[in-house]
Amino acid sequence: MTDYRAVDLRFSPDGDLVLDPGGGLVDTAIYPMLSLKQEIITRVLTNVGDWPQHPWMGTNAQQYVGEKNDDETIEALLESLRQGLTNDGLVDDRDLTIEWSKWDAHTVLLLLTVNVGVLSPENEGRLEIPFAFDFNDLGVMIYDK
Question: Beta partners for 107?
């Protein structure tokens, strides 16, 4: 199992750095899974080549916008997600589960789960990130708290 303990600067789902009330930078040390969660969300939302310093980073999920919401396309989307999250060891393939359910003619709901093991005495188990994919025109929609 991969060691999922990491600390990074905290940023919003839009990529903005999070500041404390005094204007200082906030990190993810307060919640051990937050660093992994924000890295996963970043990769799901980006395409390979979006990050010049990390040309492999991204899932290319947006390439499926405009495609049919059928089992074949959903399986291709799931493979793109899996590849983008495991190709450099961010997530171990054995620890990753992606469940899906069709919501309507254009949307599939997805639950990405990572078995993170024990990160600290009070943090163990699974990291779950729900999101939807709109094949019509929106693409990835993260349901982040």
Answer: 134
Closest CA to 115 of 96, 87, 90, 93: 96
**Total domain count, the chain:** 1
Do the domain assignments include residue 33? no
Pull the structure tokens for residue 65.
Answer: 């916008």
Bridge partners, residue 140, by sequence: 133
Report the mean per-residue pLDDT for the chain: 84
pTM for the model:
0.82
User: Across the beta sheet with 139-142, what order do the strands follow?
Assistant: 96-102, 107-120, 123-134, 139-142
pLDDT score recorded for residue 100: 96
Q: Does residue 22 lie within any of the structural domains? A: no
Burial class (CB within 10 angstroms; exposed 0-12, middle 13-18, buried 19+) of 33:
buried
